[in-house]
Amino acid sequence: MSRVLDVYNYLHTIPELGMQERKTSAFLADQLENAGYIVTRNINNATGVVGIYDTGITGPTLALRADMDALGHMINGNLCARHSCGHDAHCSMVLTASENLIQSHTLKKGKLKIIFQPAEELGTGAISLLEGGVLDDVDMILGLHLRPKSEVPLGQATPAMYHAASQRLKAVVHGTRAHGARPHLGVNAIEAASLAIMSVATIRMDPNISYSIKPTQFDCNSGVTNAIPDEATIIWDVRAEQNDIMATLLTKAKQAIENASLSMGAAADVSWYNLVPAAVYTDDAIALYTEAIEAVLGKKGICDPGKTAGGEDFHNFILQKPHLHAGYFGLGCDLEPGLHHPDMHFNTAALATGTAILEYAAKKYLG
């Protein structure tokens, strides 16, 4: 059995939720140290791990990044952590590539930095590493992700996987309590919130640029059924292909919510959180991954750049460090039935392919 598959099979047995990846991070840190990396654990008092290999020769710093956390699924009434997004596969490929790169003695300049990031699913892991200074000396950062079979087939890879911006919009609508028999003396928060929802649904943006905004939570309970409720909370899931479209969409939604609430005699407090920016890559990183994919899979193995409405907090690195050169490839692996499905599975033969692509890119950049 190959090294990358051995690592994957072990990590798959110890799924851990975001910021709780203690076994995972300890294992990865130990393996990096055994390979010869200088390792820092518990970055920013969290579970992030960084390993550094310095060639001793002046040159750029390249970072290879993998996310560590699993997802929580309710299964038979119990919350279970499962690697249904492939983060165990990402760690396996990055770790194996990092080991092979030292063993092959092919890095001739600069530094190689291996980053194992916590809490990608929470949207907070990249920020934690940034606050810990992990990216301060990095010139280029490279990431990767398994792709569903419907996007990229086994035996192919895309040199650029473009994720959408993702955010949560929250509105707390304030009405006025009243007895159910005297509704004219109150302002019904449910009615005001419902109008706010419908007002947001009328927002129109450029249809040539993908975006969506839809309510995903509604909470209102006065505690009894014969009283007018005075507060309702709504959460919207907001996505946009571009960061400027996201900013405009949020502004329009805030205006719609506030105006709709006001028309009912209510008021609304509007905020947003959990920003995951849209992907922004540099041409040199895309070219590097294109060359690496062709070297491993041939020209027929190169897919066109892909787009997804899914988010990825990798892009917080570029938002906070706009000077960074960045790339992110998508690996075909016959993944079914889909990412975030509790029964997600894929062809593990693709792990060797992903490892080889990462190795080639690192050797090209630091060789």
UniProtKB/TrEMBL annotation:
<dbReference type="InterPro" id="IPR011650">
    <property type="entry name" value="Peptidase_M20_dimer"/>
</dbReference>
<feature type="binding site">
    <location>
        <position position="340"/>
    </location>
    <ligand>
        <name>Mn(2+)</name>
    </ligand>
</feature>
<dbReference type="Pfam" id="PF01546">
    <property type="entry name" value="Peptidase_M20"/>
</dbReference>
<dbReference type="Pfam" id="PF07687">
    <property type="entry name" value="M20_dimer"/>
</dbReference>
<protein>
    <submittedName>
        <fullName>Amidohydrolase</fullName>
    </submittedName>
</protein>
<keyword id="KW-0464">Manganese</keyword>
<dbReference type="GO" id="GO:0016787">
    <property type="term" value="F:hydrolase activity"/>
</dbReference>
<keyword id="KW-0479">Metal-binding</keyword>
<feature type="binding site">
    <location>
        <position position="87"/>
    </location>
    <ligand>
        <name>Mn(2+)</name>
    </ligand>
</feature>
<dbReference type="InterPro" id="IPR002933">
    <property type="entry name" value="Peptidase_M20"/>
</dbReference>
<keyword id="KW-0378">Hydrolase</keyword>
<feature type="binding site">
    <location>
        <position position="121"/>
    </location>
    <ligand>
        <name>Mn(2+)</name>
    </ligand>
</feature>
<feature type="binding site">
    <location>
        <position position="85"/>
    </location>
    <ligand>
        <name>Mn(2+)</name>
    </ligand>
</feature>
<dbReference type="InterPro" id="IPR017439">
    <property type="entry name" value="Amidohydrolase"/>
</dbReference>
<dbReference type="InterPro" id="IPR036264">
    <property type="entry name" value="Bact_exopeptidase_dim_dom"/>
</dbReference>
<feature type="binding site">
    <location>
        <position position="145"/>
    </location>
    <ligand>
        <name>Mn(2+)</name>
    </ligand>
</feature>
<feature type="domain" description="Peptidase M20 dimerisation">
    <location>
        <begin position="169"/>
        <end position="260"/>
    </location>
</feature>
<dbReference type="GO" id="GO:0046872">
    <property type="term" value="F:metal ion binding"/>
</dbReference>
